[in-house]
Amino acid sequence: MFDPFKDFDQAGYLRNRFKEKDPDIVRELEHTMFRAGLDEALAYVAKRKTLVYEDFLAVHRILFLELYPWAGQDRAATAPNSAVSKANIMFCHPFDVRRAVEEGLRIGQNKKALRHRLGEVMGWFAYGHPFLDGNGRTMLIIHSELCHRAGFCIEWQRTHKVDYLTALSAEISAPGKGHLDCYLSPFIGVLRNREWWGGSIDSIQGLDGRSVQNTVDGDYSDAHVAQKYQEFEMNRNRH
After folding, report:
1. Looking at residue 64, what is its pLDDT?
2. Interhelix angle 97-108/135-149, nearest 10 degrees
3. 55 contact partners, CB below 8 Å, separation of at least 6
4. pTM of the model
5. CA-to-CA distance for 127 and 89, rounded, in angstroms?
6. Considering Cα of 84, then 209, then 87, then 127, what sign does the dihedral take?
7. Is 96:148 a contact under the CB 8 Å cutoff?
8. Residue 221 has what DSSP assignment?
């Protein structure tokens, strides 16, 4: 059980407002909150002249504040000492989250570059992994807005969850090598009105959150944990 706060028995999964412990019920609640907040989140990003890190936080807060009291706070605030991974993919140190997301935003707001590096942008967002939960859905909204501003869309409803996650994992492990770019390029579509997004996003496979959960590997103060993450970083930078 993913329990970075170490109070699951008292506060439920990730201190959710209902103190719910059943993972299936929590996932249903997450998806309900996501669907309820989707239109507001899409409207929010559409109004932002330039997307910045704080907009990432704001979208997450819009989507999940009714479920998680810490919604909109990144890992530097919620779990600053915890090393978090998922399915053997390690996310950056909490204090590097902003840097990773901002690198994705830097590339993504260059309209010409985005079409050729759209997977790399998503890889930076995923590597940053700002939140204890709800990252994928938050990333999707920001990424969709960036693509819209560049004059195209990703037809996410045509993608396949397992294949996408495999390519995303490869992108995180070896950034900028085209792993996710190659996977997503066949799904580039013509520009669609924002009014179309809500139904399209809601139909994407896997947005119910039923996937491999995060894992807390321990505190960075643990020498074994620190070495494990250092080795991952070295391999990541070597590629």
Report:
1. 98
2. 30
3. 44, 45, 48, 142
4. 0.93
5. 9
6. negative
7. no
8. T
Burial profile 37-54: b = 16 or more Cβ within 10 angstroms, e = fewer = bbeebbebbeeeeebebe
CB of 205 within 8 A of CB of 161? yes
| pLDDT of 210 strictly over 60 | no
Place of tokens 């991952």: 232
User: Model confidence over 50-100: pLDDT tens digits?
Assistant: 999 999 999 999 999 999 999 999 999 999 999 999 888 999 999 999 999
CB 126 within 8 A of CB 139: yes
Confidence of residue 216 (pLDDT cuts 50, 70, 90): confident
In Å, the largest CA–CA distance within the chain is: 51
Nearest to 192 by CA among 143, 142, 149, 160: 149
Helix/strand/coil percentages in the chain, nearest 5: 60, 10, 30
Residue 153 and residue 130 in contact, taking contact as beta carbons nearer than 8 Å:
no
DSSP structure class, residue 60: H
Reference 169, options 215, 135, 216, 122; nearest CA is 122
Q: What's the pLDDT at 207?
A: 54
SS3 57: helix
CB-based contacts of 182: which residues, under 8 Å, 6+ apart? 119, 167
Phi, psi of 74 (to 5 degrees): -85, 180
E strand residue ranges, the chain = 82-86, 89-90, 152-154, 188-190, 215-219
Q: Are the beta carbons of 26 and 8 closer than 8 angstroms?
A: no
